[in-house]
Amino acid sequence: MTGAGNRPFFCAGFEALLLEGTLNCSDRMRHILQVHMVPQLARKGIPALLKAFGSWEGIIAATPDECSERTGLPLNACQAILDTEDPRLERAVRTLEDLQAKVITCQDPGYPAGLTTLPQPPPVLYYRGHPPTVETALAIVGARKATRGICQFVQKMARDLTGYGICIVSGLARGLDTAAHQGALEGGGATIGVLGCGIDRIYPAENSALAEAMLENGTILSEYPPGVPPLPQHFPARNRIISGLSQGVLVGEATRNSGSLITADFALEQGREVFALPGLPYSEWSAGTNDLLKQGAQLVTEVDDILQVLWPCRPTVAAQKATEDLAGSLSGPQKTVLDMIGPTPCHIDEITRQSGLTPMEVSATLLDLELQGGVEQLSGMRYIRRIH
Question: How would residue 364 be classed by pLDDT, with cut points 50, 70 and 90?
């Protein structure tokens, strides 16, 4: 159904910017908060300001009259930007510093590429832990009152998926979201929790310990400034970020009015793949997922159902490491031959022709690679790369 850890899970280039101090500067953070904490601006006003003035510093330097004239925004909103005496501003700055939280904006090079295609990308993201720039991710969402069996199944799926280097994205809610995050942690992988409130509040509070554990390999993320409470209208909006960060969305269990179906709708609008677990036909808790399946969602009963659609040739993290370790120990001819062999069978004559080695050298090299577990011989003197 398609519409229009570990540090290796995250892009390293953005961390270099953080180390340079360009994105954790107190002055820049203050300027961003000055603009972002003005309620009248919402999501549409900030892009207009950035288009008009080019930078957060340029917005701060403008007079209220100039700001209003160039953007069409209400004058009182433009005046509020310059209200540096607002006690909320100082509290927010102090909160971010105390939490060691960082800010990333739509202008920064590390801004998640998947969010740039949204109709209204969040102009500002606050996060703790690792930068939210992931290369391979799956969102897992579902009912807060999900049945125990489904939670256990999803937890195992998340654990297994992290074994393939796939980051798990969810909303840190009770029930199925919690199971997804816990499974990722059990697998030693990366996981991102997207909040519907400020970065200084974990909702529900019972997941505070889980959130802290996620920071070692993952991220806690919010588009809301510090101090913003978990209001009901925030959660549908945060769902677009959950799907936007991911290549696909798995809905584990959902009623027909579940918020998880909003995430599935966003996924379709964003061109992501939608997956669903089948449920009992008479269960109200599975009515939403069963409807998704009728509409064309990919049916999932095992991890391979997801891998075959999104990442059909992706090896496990352990296999990647084994391959890297093997490659590092090979001689020149061995590496030449191994690089020529992939998942498609290759005949020894073709290997000889392309490698430039003699038939005797190729035979000896292939035997060495077999003994080291790098290749496997098939019938008819054909060879394939061995999957560890």
Answer: very high
